[in-house]
Amino acid sequence: MKSIFCLYVSFLATLSLFSQNDGWTISSEKVEKYTGIVTANGRIGILPEDKPFQTKSIILNNVYDKESPLGVSKILLGMNFAQLELEIDGELIEERNVSDWNQTLDMKTAGFTTSFTFKDKAKVSYTIYALRNIQYSGYIDVQIQPLKNIEVKATGIIETPDEYHSPNSTFRVFQDLETTMPILQTVAESRLGRHIVGTSATFIWHAINSTREHQRPELTHNMVTAYDNRLSFEQELKKGEIFEFAWTGAICSTQDFEDPQTESERFVIFNLLNPRADLLNQHKKLWEELWEGDIVIEGNLQDQLDVRLALYHLYAFSRGDSDLSIAPMGLSSQSYNGHIFWDSELWMFPPLLMLNQDIARSLVNYRSDRLGKAKEKAINFGYKGAMFPWESDDTGEEATPAWALTGTFEHHITADVAIAFWNYYLVTQNMDWLKERGYPMIKEVADYWVSRSTKNDDGTYSIKNVVGANEFAPNVDDNAFTNGSAITALQYATKAAKTVGVAADPAWNEVASKIRILKFPDGTTKEHATYDGERIKQADVNLLTYPLDVVNDEETVLKDLKYYEPKLAEEGPAMGQSVFAVIYARLGNAKEAYRLFRRSYEPNKRPPFGALAEAATSDNPYFATGAGGMLQVVLAGFGGLEITNEGIVQKNPILPKEWKSLTIKGVGPERKIYSVR
């Protein structure tokens, strides 16, 4: 642990050195260990590398195929259209022949810029955008400043991952009247043939009118293999003559389009024939609107950057117009197969609900769109109502590998969904949504928990044979968080029924009032019926205090904190520390809250930009769930924001001594501003 801490302190010093003092940008020179930061728009995620013009991967949201013939679904890697090669005077630009290397993430505009000097011949920079306005496309804006007369050759590449089959790679020049449109394209089948994916790309020369073909550099098509499709041009540049061009691509699949090939062409043509300023200003305007919901920390630049980077990722991984949710790693990787877990409802949803109800609606609508499958699952397992899968994909069926007990027994997810639904209504007061989507969902969840509970001889109810939030303890009875979340979901169902003007099932209140929450002899909440002090993977009991408010007397809350915090395993995910931090902040203990806030993510940061891994001992960033947890510490802990029957209100905010002030902007539908000084 000591070595990890020393490595982290060194990383912090490096990060602070390269971070500009505006709170919006994070920069780095060349480093030995490198984890990139994704640029994403809620549909695609583009992950840069630390090599000139190289991109590690493109991830497609909600596009799945089976990982293997006998496996479960897995999110698709996209065909990588964000690859370029640049040659100057016949020499390929590579790591070994560049200097003055710098990469900068601008969180305000969601642009990732790389700059360097090639020998004594040219200064080069390029910025990668996953266009927020043209959601299936990306844009790489390149600038070359010659230091002497040079010859440049640029090559754009569509690189198709090996998991695709039967790629058809082409180059065609479309023409309509005087307008010519060169299109590089690859179309292929996904891993096991579930989807057809079409990817198109082209060059854009900003200073050249698209209708005057004779001004364009001559294009050369080179298909190395069907999996490596290339388009090149050459240009002579004079010293001091700044040359700008772009490479743009789009990727579509049969998940979203009947004809993904043609749609990908249309997106590229749209980008080609729109002026750069218009296209990028639209993208930046949409990000400006997202940042109306923001967190401003005065007095600690590093904390400001860390918090804003977390919020940047939640915005980048989601869209208000998609009715999609967010996987634990968002659009940064295929980790966890890109499936949707409780991470979405319990960890990422609350910050988004406070700062962007448009995106929050997308997350809850993702679940209501799959209510039918949840009802089928309940029937199939002998229950009533709706039973949600532990891991969900585009179908809404269970997507957890069969060997993982979580998929068969981690049932609190069903309550987590209903809790998110009721909180969405409390914040938005959207009665039409509650009647059409909210209450029908909450009712089915309540019916499930009535059927899932077992009545004991003393009249109490138990929920037996579950995996709780602490997944180190499978197949236990009366797990604290499962029982607490079921109680909360049942209580919310009664409230929702009254709100829409229908009669609540009396069984909901009957069961909710008698589900067991177990205690040790000294009054500490017991995690499950046979718990005896073992290590825990995740805060479980403490979730009954926040966010559930089932355990709320201060004596028990403190006992639970002091008992369970030392038992949290280092290899566990980051969110446990976040829960402890929120609770301490609400108890008025800013020192302990800040200690646990930093502990919830500091050991998980990876150089050079601070990407979060899931745990201190893992290397799988970016962990959007951890981002959601740390943001809840700031909003619900230090900021004192609570979701109540009156909407979002501020109660007892508290400021750590390390900060001069905290300002939370764009809260709730009224876009309120809350400050703590």
Automatic annotation (TrEMBL):
Keywords: Hydrolase, Signal. GO terms for molecular function: carbohydrate binding; glycosyltransferase activity; hydrolase activity, hydrolyzing O-glycosyl compounds. Residues 1-21 form the signal peptide. InterPro entries: 6-hairpin_glycosidase_sf, 6hp_glycosidase-like_sf, Gal_mutarotase_sf_dom, GH65_N, Glyco_hydro_65_M, Glyco_hydro_65_N. Gene3D superfamilies: 1.50.10.10, Glycoside hydrolase, family 65, N-terminal domain. Residues 308-502, 531-601 form the Glycoside hydrolase family 65 central catalytic domain. The keyword Metal-binding does not apply. Pfam families: Glyco_hydro_65m, Glyco_hydro_65N. Residues 39-195 form the Glycoside hydrolase family 65 N-terminal domain. GO terms for biological process: carbohydrate metabolic process. This is Trehalose/maltose hydrolase-like predicted phosphorylase. It comes from Flagellimonas meridianipacifica.
